[in-house]
Write a structure and sequence with these properties.
The complex is a heterodimer. Chain A is built from 14 helices and three strands. Chain A is mostly helical. In chain A, α11 crosses α12. About 21% of the residues of chain A have low confidence. In chain B, α2 runs parallel beside α7, α4 packs parallel to α7 and α5 runs antiparallel to α7. Chain B is rod-shaped, with a radius of gyration of 30 Å. The N terminus of chain B is likely disordered. Chain B is 84% helix and 0% strand. Chain B is built from seven helices and no strands. Classes of the chains: A mainly alpha, B mainly alpha.
């Protein structure tokens, strides 16, 4: 037994010793030397959900448009810009090269209400000298108009705050500044007034108009041209990367799309011949208005121009869209479903 | 920007490191299995040598026994020697025979029974000697894998606890613990496989030797029985 034990112990020790040397560390798995390369993951939102901003500005944490020049806020303004009135045109849209056809208020009555606010007293008389001859006034006041920068001392009618308003043209139109325009037209107005209306009426008139009538707002409504300006929402922030206007990038949810699909499918009478044609596919495009009604006739954009069966299928698809017309879609996502393309595939139906 | 880098694991994976990193339960299991392996091999070597020696002894004894030498003479040479195997059986039978005749036993049947009993006893004793410690091989062969598995399970348990603590599932973190745990199973198998093979081989060898001795015992019993009959007839005549 002693020999066996000795031999066994020695053999084990030898084996362990060999193991410690030979199996000391297995060769590390050879991993190909891969050079790490950077991968930028670009979210699709950068394409679909553009904020109003500067196209060349760096990406910022928070989207911001280019800073506007005049920071006084206008209440309830929605579009960024320097205007006094909130217009929908972009803040830095280029003025059209062709002649601007701004709607000019007709002035049948010789009321001295200004077409423009008081902040341009100097130019105004120059810009429309036409109305002056229209009125049956003596030409003598015209030379006086050129000296308008300091007509204030001359006017006896105007009150003292009026003179201040002339010096500070930035001041927004206010009841105090209103009486100023008559001052600008000192030459014509008093003469006409004298002829037609008493002085008291003259004072009362601008006051009433102040509530009901704002020339800027009407101009904004009538304005059909893209002009310099933009909205009235003031911005002080550093410009961030963005597009010309904000697109919300809203999408219809799957269930909303299913609802639309179901609505169209109910009205779709698949022509009998279409059942056999396996790859008979028709795409119909149509525009919707905000109420969900059809804005344009559905237009077949793909398929339906082969044999009679295909034409029939295309017509049936078009009919289905016309038939189901007022579509029930979330109005707050109108941008997403204003223009719809529906793919009709008869092979999916059966 | 995500920069991905692939790095080779830096864990120490040598045998000694694997053993040293293991928990105390796993270490205990490994040490036990190592000891069992050493003892198994000790038994295997001892038995293999012993059986070879026993086989040679049987051959030599049979040669001498059937050489025509007188049994009395053979007994005299073997009686004062330490004998094993067939020699031991022969000596025990002859001793009983001598005792009976020296004291003048009269019943031949009783004598035959006594001699058979003595030979059976010697045979059993010899077989016991041959088969001693083979049971240890059998139990190591069947239980060592389980012991190793136990060490592995405990090792993997602790290594998973460590992984949960480190909050990383990197393979470099997971691998050393599992490798060290698997070492226990490897050692269990290392001890069990030779034990099972050796047990089967040695037990069949022992059975062969036992059959040979049994055959000799039967033969010798027949010879003695013939002798007894001759003596009884001689006496009767």
């Amino acid at each position: 037994m002693k020999t066996g034990l000795t031999v066994s112990t020695v053999a084990h020790a030898a084996l362990l010793g060999f193991g410690l040397v030979a199996l000391s560390a297995p060769q590390a798995l050879e991993v190909a030397d891969v050079e790490a390369f950077p991968v930028d993951i670009v979210p699709i939102e950068t394409m679909t959900q553009i904020q109003h901003g500067d196209k060349k500005a760096p990406v910022a944490e928070r989207a911001a448009p280019t800073p506007t020049v005049r920071p006084e806020p206008v209440p309830l303004a929605k579009n960024v810009g320097d205007n006094d009135t909130d217009l929908k045109t972009a803040a830095n849209a280029e003025a059209s090269k062709r002649e601007v056809q701004t709607a000019v208020l007709p002035k049948p009555e010789p009321v001295p209400t200004p077409a423009k606010p008081a902040d341009v007293p100097v130019e105004k008389p120059k810009s429309d000298p036409a109305p002056v001859p229209a009125t049956e006034v003596t030409p003598e006041p015209q030379p006086r108009q050129e000296v308008t920068p300091d007509p204030a001392p001359e006017t006896a009618v105007s009150e003292s705050p009026d003179t201040e308003a002339v010096k500070l043209p930035e001041q927004a139109p206010s009841p105090q500044s209103r009486p100023q325009p008559p001052q600008a037209q000192t030459a014509k107005a008093p003469q006409r007034r004298d002829a037609e209306k008493p002085a008291e009426q003259q004072a009362a008139r601008p006051q009433n108009q102040e509530r009901s009538f704002d020339a800027d707002q009407i101009a904004a409504l009538l304005n059909q041209e893209k002009t310099r300006g933009g909205g009235a929402l003031r911005s002080n922030d550093q410009a961030a990367l963005g597009g010309e206007r904000t697109t919300t990038g809203q999408k219809l949810t799957q269930s909303e799309m299913d609802a639309l699909r179901g609505q169209i499918q109910r009205c779709w009478n698949v022509p009998a011949g279409a059942l056999d044609a396996e790859n008979l596919k028709v795409s119909v495009q149509f525009k919707l208005d905000r109420s969900g009604g059809l804005e344009s006739n559905p237009e077949i954009v793909a398929g339906g121009n082969g044999n009679s069966v295909e034409r029939a299928a295309a017509e049936s698809a078009r009919r289905a869209i016309l038939q189901c017309a007022p579509y029930n879609l979330p109005s707050d996502k109108y941008e997403a479903w204003a223009d719809v393309i529906v793919h009709f595939d008869p092979s999916d139906m059966f | 920007m995500e920069t991905l880098t692939l790095a080779a694991p830096g864990g120490e994976l040598s045998l000694w490191a694997l053993f040293w990193q293991a928990g105390w339960v796993v270490k205990l299991v490994m040490i036990g299995l190592l000891a069992a392996s050493i003892w198994t091999w000790a038994i295997i070597i001892d038995k293999a040598l012993g059986y070879a020696r026993a086989r040679r002894a049987l051959d030599r004894f049979e040669e001498t026994f059937w050489s025509g030498q007188s049994l009395e003479e053979l007994y005299r040479t073997l009686a004062d020697r330490k004998t094993s195997g067939m020699g031991a059986i022969f000596v025990s039978a002859m001793r009983e025979w001598k005792k009976s005749f020296e004291k003048g036993a009269r019943s031949p049947i009783q004598l035959q029974t006594r001699i058979d009993k003595a030979m059976d006893l010697a045979l059993t004793r010899e077989m016991e000697r041959l088969e001693s410690r083979l049971g240890f091989l059998a139990s190591i062969g069947s239980s060592a894998p389980f012991i190793g598995l136990f060490g592995t399970v405990v090792g993997i348990m602790t290594s998973f606890q460590a992984i949960a603590g480190s909050k990383s599932t990197n393979l470099a973190v997971v691998a050393p613990g599992i490798a060290e745990a698997l070492l226990a199973t490897a050692m269990g198998l290392l001890a069990a496989i030779p034990a099972v093979i050796a047990y089967n081989k040695l037990s069949s060898d022992a059975a062969k030797l036992g059959n040979r001795m049994e055959g000799f015992a039967d033969e010798f019993s027949a010879i003695l029985s013939r002798q007894i009959d001759e003596k009884v007839l001689h006496k009767a005549a």
